[in-house]
Amino acid sequence: MAYRETEKMRQRKAQARQRIIDCTYECVANGGFRSARITRIAGLAGVATGTIYRHFESREDLFAEIFRTATQREVDKVAEALTTDGDAAVRLEAALRQFAERAMRGPMMAWALIAEPVDPKLEEERLVYRRAYAELFEKAIRDGIEEGCIPDQDARQSSTCLVGAIAESLVGPLSPTLAGQITIADIDKNKLVDSIIRFCMQGLTGTRR
């Protein structure tokens, strides 16, 4: 008789997989991908290390799952901000502020997603999600051009410039490698966010906001 997996067994497997994901997410949020060692994840999840590899082909596959989950949450928040009231310029400013403020509230996860040195598989995921942000910004810029609140320009190019500017401007403040020099706790986060948004919006609209 062929082996048939029971519903109870499928549920147990699904629960174990979710525990692995949740514990890996916690490790990354607290110390970046470098701190998410398989032995540590297994201990937190209450499973054997071999169990992790039954659910994920490799460490890189597990990390890619975490990267997609975490980044999609951020993309969704930016998309949500773009539905707020006001013209396209106001909505873009709200979306950029959402991006920066959430990074300030979760600096280690933001660092892991934006700039932490990672394996090529995660770099590919990083590029995918940068494009996702750029596509959201591009649509808003096109809307702004049609509304007349944003000057005529290459919306696609401007959107990639916005993604690059806001991500790069956060790398230094978020970097854990600056310990002993300046830390995120030493930074006036409101002032930093305001400065980043001002730069982005002035570049986009040509006017001081």
* C-alpha termini separation: 72 Å
Number of domains: 2
Largest sheet: none
The whole-angstrom Rg is 20 Å
How many distinct beta strands?
Answer: 0
Helical element count? Answer: 9
Shape: elongated
Sheet-strand content, in percent, reads under 5%
Arithmetic mean of pLDDT: 91
Protein name: Transcriptional regulator, TetR family
Organism: Marinobacter pelagius
DNA-binding region: 37-56
GO molecular function: DNA-binding transcription factor activity; transcription cis-regulatory region binding
Descriptive notes:
The protein is mostly helical and about 210 residues long. The chain has two domains: about 1-55, Arc Repressor Mutant, subunit A (Orthogonal Bundle), CATH 1.10.10; about 65-205, Tetracycline Repressor, domain 2 (Orthogonal Bundle), CATH 1.10.357. About 75% of the residues lie in helices and about 0% in strands. The protein has nine helices and no strands. The chain has helices at about 5-30, 40-45, 50-55, 60-80, 90-105, 105-115, 120-145, 155-175, 190-205. Helix 7 (about 120-145) crosses helix 8 (about 155-175). The longest helix is centred in the middle third of the chain and has 28 residues, at about 120-145. It is elongated, with a radius of gyration of 20 Å.
